[in-house]
Automatic annotation (TrEMBL):
Annotated spans, Disordered: 92-148
Keywords: Membrane, Transmembrane, Transmembrane helix
Biased composition (Polar residues): 92-120
Membrane-spanning ranges: 15-34
InterPro entries: DUF7382, Ig-like_fold
Keyword Isomerase included in the entry's annotation: no
This protein's name: DUF7382 domain-containing protein
Length: 148
């Protein structure tokens, strides 16, 4: 009986084809995983920032144009901009929604405290619903300077 097992070569007959099948399946799985990994960057979230115009202003009522941009500097439409008191004081929170060019005009009336030479107005952005944008970092502030 042991002599018949020794001469049995059937186990080797299917080995090369099994190796080829395993190699083909492995390469196919690897290509699917690589395409999935390369597609992940399209799910990436983009940080937004604001660009106030002018960047420096005096206390008192004035219109400030705020542009919301993405990390590449492209305008973001449909975002809500919220202006709040920073170290300069606003009488109330002011909001507005950006248009197709990413701009919104806000009427602000910043004031400075006694013996305060400068201050800031801060901006927050609520990105458009269903977009890949987020506002996690601090944004550019509007500098308010007392004119001499």
């Amino acid at each position: 009986m042991s002599d018949s097992l020794w001469r049995d070569e059937r186990a080797i007959e299917g080995l090369p084809i099994r190796l080829v099948i395993a190699l083909v399946v492995g390469v196919a799985c690897l290509s699917v995983m690589m395409s999935t990994i390369s597609g992940i960057e399209t799910l990436q979230v983009t940080e937004v920032d604001v660009e106030p115009h002018p960047e420096v202003t005096n206390p008192g009522t004035q219109d400030v144009v705020v542009t919301v941009v993405d990390s590449k500097g492209s305008p973001v439409s449909g975002a809500t901009v919220v202006a709040k008191s920073g170290t300069a004081t606003l009488s109330s929170v002011t909001t507005g929604e950006t248009g197709s060019a990413g701009n919104v005009t806000l009427s602000l009336s910043p004031s400075l405290g006694p013996n305060q030479q400068d201050g800031t107005v801060t901006f927050e952005v609520k990105p458009p619903a269903g977009s890949n944008y987020e506002d996690a970092r601090s944004n550019t502030d509007l500098l308010v300077v007392e004119s001499p």
